[in-house]
Write a structure and sequence with these properties.
It is a single chain. This protein has 196 residues and is of the alpha/beta class. The chain contains 4 helices and 8 strands. The chain has a 6-stranded mixed β-sheet with strand order 1-3-4-5-6-7. It is flat, with a radius of gyration of 28 Å. The N and C termini lie far apart (121 Å).
Amino acid sequence: LTKKRQESFDSFSLDLYDARLMQKVKIPITLDPTRAAQKRSTFDGIIPLVNLTRLTESLVSSEGDVDVVVHCGTDEQGLVFIEAQARCQVQVKCERCSEHMNLELNSSFAYTPIRSDKDSAHDDIPERYEVVEKNEHGEVNLRQLVEDELILALPLFPMHDVDQCDPTKLQTSFGHIEPEPEKPNPFAILQELKKK
């Protein structure tokens, strides 16, 4: 004899919840990297683009979220590290045709936090880590790190492929260019002396 169990979303069962039903959480603004490393903390969540004001200055729209995964730990040297990956879809203006274009930003990075009064500690840090200073509370601004990395991932001059730009909107010149007046060649005098 087997009993048929009643299925409902929040009833007790040994089955795992469907991940699609779970919402992503917001990534903390700051974190204590030492405490997070001791716990081997992992954060999987989002940062709303609207909260990244320096990044959104370069965007057409501030709608959407940045998907962020952060892992904190201690490496074989005993250094605390923050490894992260940030990914988002943004809308920027094409520098060639001035039309809006979608762009995917994807950045992976690793930091090790230091105290600002330990300048000599910079010499012992492996190249795979960037250095970030802790604030007076021993915390690191995680949101600022993610924003800095996404700004670095943003192309300086975003452009569609040439065949995707509307040819009628291509900006091939900016205004009228006056012909440059002829200037005497500064070496003309030397040329004359050479002939003599």
